[in-house]
Amino acid sequence: MIDLRSDTVTQPTDQMRRAMAEAQVGDDVYGEDPTVNRLEETAARLVGMEAALFVPSGTMGNQIAIAVHAARGTEVVCEARAHVVEHELASMAVISGCMPRLVPTTDGILSAEKIEQVLRADLPGLTRPGVLVVENSHNLFGGAVTPPEALAEIARLARDRKIPLHMDGARIFNASVACGSPAETLARGFDSVMFCLSKGLCAPVGSVLAGSKPFIVEARRWRRRLGGGMRQAGVLAAAGVVALTSMRDRLREDHDNARVLADALRSVEGVALDVPPVMTNMVYLKVLGPRGRNREIVSTLRRSDVLCNAVGHDRIRFVTHHGIKRGDVLRAAEAIRAAASAGSPSS
């Protein structure tokens, strides 16, 4: 199988498996797991924060950040198709008592100007913003990257308006490689940042939430409240240490393979690239023809040993990652061409 459904399907490397087997462990709920502590120290340093917290998932990391930053009855200001809105099951409402304030864009890239257009006056009859969330890179816009200059302007706006600023940086290292700026630069001016270890970095599980020391003290309480204390978690954290120290630079290979796939699909009958140009490791196709045809193509591709995900009623997502080689991409492109052309409107 050529599995292009997501970079979450990556397998831990041999180096990770050895590190996991040999990991020193303790009770992390007591703060006594040396491997977890090393992971958190490494992660905080990479994004320029004082401290960090190992959590089971990116969703938990994002929701802890919202809970710490935003008072109940306030708004989470974010891009209209952000992960915290589309894929976190209304957790901001269920857990924190917050509602989203959506910022529409055509490319998934926020700017201070766009955010200002939805921020409302601080009046007794209007809901206040509780936290501003920036997703970088942006999943549903094909891994779009918000550049450092735009992030700096957003940080200035948040500071001027006294709004806490959180980055959903699930794939921040993809964004870093794509724009040529260190993750620390991308996170500068943010009050917190979450990033995943279990996507392109290949760790088997886990994410990290980073911020100031007082923020992480409160985040640790929320992790316990949500059932995220993992005790002897050093076995998992060991893979995360390897991910952060040896897997970040190789993400460039995934980006190159995604561009090769996109180039091979530009002239395919019955589909069109939905989010050009490809900036990171995602390729989205818009399927022409009747509603639901994208799911038919996904089923056809599965029979050809190519796995991918249908998104909505007319899109298909392909994600390159460790374990997907150039030859896999080219073979997948041929299968996609055949599957899409077979039932295209003009066939």
How are the SSEs ordered, and which strands pair?
Blueprint: E1 2-3, H1 14-22, H2 34-46, E2 51-55, H3 58-69, E3 75-79, H4 83-86, H5 91-96, E4 99-103, H6 112-118, E5 129-135, H7 148-161, E6 165-168, H8 172-179, H9 183-187, E7 192-196, E8 207-211, H10 213-225, H11 234-246, H12 251-265, E9 271-273, E10 282-287, H13 293-303, E11 306-307, E12 309-311, E13 315-319, H14 326-342
Parallel strand pairs: 1-11, 3-4, 3-5, 5-6, 6-7
Antiparallel strand pairs: 2-8, 7-8, 9-10, 10-13, 12-13
Helix pairs in contact: 1-11, 2-11, 3-10, 12-14, 13-14
Quick synopsis:
This protein is an alpha/beta fold and 347 residues long. It has 14 helices and 13 strands. 42% of the residues lie in helices and 16% in strands.
What tags apply to this protein structure?
single chain, 347 residues, alpha/beta, Aspartate Aminotransferase, domain 2, Aspartate Aminotransferase, domain 1, 2 domains, seven-stranded mixed beta sheet, four-stranded antiparallel beta sheet, 13 strands
